[in-house]
Amino acid sequence: MTDAERRRLADADAGAEPWRMWGPYLSERAWGTVREDYSEHGTAWEYFPHDHARSRAFRWNEDGLAGICDERQTFCFGLGLWNGADPILKERIFGLTGNEGNHGEDAKEYWWYTDSTPTHSWMSWRYHYPQREFPYSELVAVNRQLDRSEPEYELADTGVFADDRYWVVTVDYAKASPTDLCMLVSVTNRGADPASLHVLPTLWFRNTWSWGLPGRDDKPEIVARRGELRGQHRILGRLVLQGDGTPEPLACDNETNAARLWGYEETPDYPKDGIADHVVHGLPTVNPARTGTKAALHYVLTVPPGETAQIRLRLTQIAAPGGKERPVPSLGAEFDQVMAARRAEADQYFGWLVPPGTPPAQAQIVREAVAGLMWGKQFYHYDVARWLDGDPASPAPPEGRRFGRNSAWRHMTSFDVISMPDPWEYPWYAAWDLAFHCVALARVDPHFAKEQILLLLRDWYLHPNGQLPAYEWAFGDVNPPVHAWAALRVFEIDGGRDYAFLARVMHKLLLNFTWWVNRKDTGGNNLFEGGFLGLDNVGPFDRSASLPVPGVLEQSDGTAWMAMYALNLLEISLVLATHDRVWTDIATKFLEHFAYIANAASHQGLWDDEDGFFYDLLRRTDGREVPLKVRSVVGLLPLCATTTLSSVTLVRLPEIAARLRWFLTNRPEFTEVVGARRISDGGQQQRLLAVVGPEQLRRILSRMLDTEEFLSDYGLRTLSRAHLDKPYTIRLGGHDYTVGYEPAESNNGLFGGNSNWRGPIWFPTNYLLIEGIRHYARFFHDDLLVEYPTRSGQKLTLDQIADDLSDRLISLFLPDKDGNRPYLPVHPLLGDHPDWTRHLTFPEFFHGDNGTGLGATHQCGWTALVLDLILTRNRHR
């Protein structure tokens, strides 16, 4: 281990030095979340809107700009900014709620996570802030007038950035120790005239004292002095935030301004918005004694055009609770040394991570994808029982909530740092998103990735019935069962040695697999339901709602996910059985269970032999069977349920070999899903375990690799483009239900309308399909050639096809021959201006034809899988 960052990771993993204790765990958005919703009808977006956030104390977690906090979110640090024109202090990212946006919730600002090491020893963040008045009302009003067929009206469309009149605000962070953080704030005036910017580095304590909870009424304190904020907290000890120069110290309390919000007479003298009202409106709303639970150092920087001004800050824990106080560290030469050293160590770390010969543009994608993943780690606090019952010092929640959202999840208690799908649009974990995050995270921090996988399997997350929690809007929704797959991938990426991790995962996943079998196979025929399964509007109707006619919807994707789940658990149990033969019984169980599911998929109505494709099947109670002939990713996912079993494994585990021989002898009908064999180049016999047999494989691939169906220049679409001219329509219960090809944002409101599985390119399913093709390649080697693209006359091996599909996905972020990145919109500012195209974001999904990034702007979680594709491709070149 030659570089300093990897040594820090090793020390953190061993418990020697808590390098992960402080990090970018402060959310981008805490308002408009389920946790903060105490409304009668679950109207989270309306109950706690953006307008309340500056004045109302959060109950469960905090938010801020460029924010950091400790892993318990005891303290918080973030920036306040004011351009002298806005009606409010800029303390958090603004955006529209799901009911305000014409395509669901949507951040209406521009910021980038430009760097971070796994321990957050070095981080950087960038934000563009208009010098003109921020058009809050205009963004709400214009978007309200748009329908779903129209694109979103963005901040750049308002003209507020015209003539480059904006500030570039960056923050670089460097840790001198786990609890000593140097920060350099830089503000650059991009306008043509001198301009002034108010910058308020702000320190505050999360409010835990206002809710009347026993033992938590201790109120911390921050004392503001010239150039310094000193905080004291019972749990944390003593903190100091230093700033260079002569900023004005301001203090108030992190408590609700009830007078402003609801007209109450009783309100704190210096509430949460006291600093903001003082700076923006000159009101006497800061404590003249300069004490409180929220405080800021107020800088006013006047900067010539094109110039940059900087502020040095240092946040240090100077004493543990009851401990001796240490000297306050320097903002001088030592500060410079720490900043330079951490930046150089970050370069060294990423030089080790990225294979030699990787093109610089691809190396940048890897580094900034890692940054997005690291900044996407958020402190998440949610005690469902406490949320349902209410706090002693607060009004009781409406009676109806006891039987409403998440009322069956009273056991759930979250108090953890978790990798979020998106820090602003989805500031809450999602089970299947998190599994994909962990595969990318394992490339840089396998310890954290394993902790994340185990987290949702802990007793206070996993439901007593075995169900994994989906997300806070509805923990009982059903996400695809990809935890076993992710655990296996993380185990392999980490070197394939942590058998204790696999065993811990396996014990809990046995409960979850049983839940699926008992709850989602209502016919007991090994065909599974599941509902929307994360694919939102992929079908003609909402698969999670009541069906349009009486019956059961047996899902091609649900069945494929369960076949894949059985294979993943088989693979895990085989790994464990090499160390403990107890697991052989589990291995044979999942071998046979996979065979039952795979056989059912092809012989009980999901496979359409005429079309050569898998479809969902509606089994009506009157006995009729209605295939839903939508050619979508639902019919491609069976390709992912495949693996190979080698003769080496069977020799090592003779009990498995004996049971397999018995099974094939006595159950010959399953030979087509577990019986295919070939001899590998190394002389080993390989056995193919697959839902999709060799002949089915050719037929499905002919559609999947067809540019007029699924194959685009930038990956695989989720719906066949054939449905552009021929939408699929079915009449059920007196109503017509239609699915047409929609390559961009959704044109319907299913699941809030903020995502779309009717045509765009999504990274997680593309990634799994590429992996599935590689599994087949491992079996067929170079003997199977497939026309690629379909009708091109060119035939490639399956590995070559997987490589090309990977390259198509990677190319979304690479500059083309004209210097444009395909994922960026065609826009004179966002797509062409070097200030805006220099750094990357990682959108939620991509336009099915032109590759433009769509959905959540900073969704780095599963889109960060691009870094795994790059590292894999360059390792094999």
From TrEMBL:
Give start and end of each Glycosyl hydrolase family 63 C-terminal domain.
557-778
The cross-references to InterPro entries, in alphabetical order and at most eight, read: 6-hairpin_glycosidase_sf, 6hp_glycosidase-like_sf, Glyco_hydro_63_C, Glycoside_hydrolase_63, MGH1-like_GH
Biological process terms in GO annotation: oligosaccharide metabolic process
Picking any one GO molecular function of the record gives: Glc3Man9GlcNAc2 oligosaccharide glucosidase activity
What positions belong to coiled-coil segments?
A: none
Report domain Mannosylglycerate hydrolase MGH1-like glycoside hydrolase positions.
426-529
Q: Can you tell which superkingdom this protein's organism belongs to?
A: Bacteria
What's the short name of a Pfam family annotated to this entry? MGH1-like_GH
PANTHER family registered for this protein in UniProt? GLYCOSYL HYDROLASE FAMILY 63 C-TERMINAL DOMAIN-CONTAINING PROTEIN, MANNOSYL-OLIGOSACCHARIDE GLUCOSIDASE
Official protein name in the record: Glucosidase
Tell me which species this is from.
Answer: Catellatospora citrea
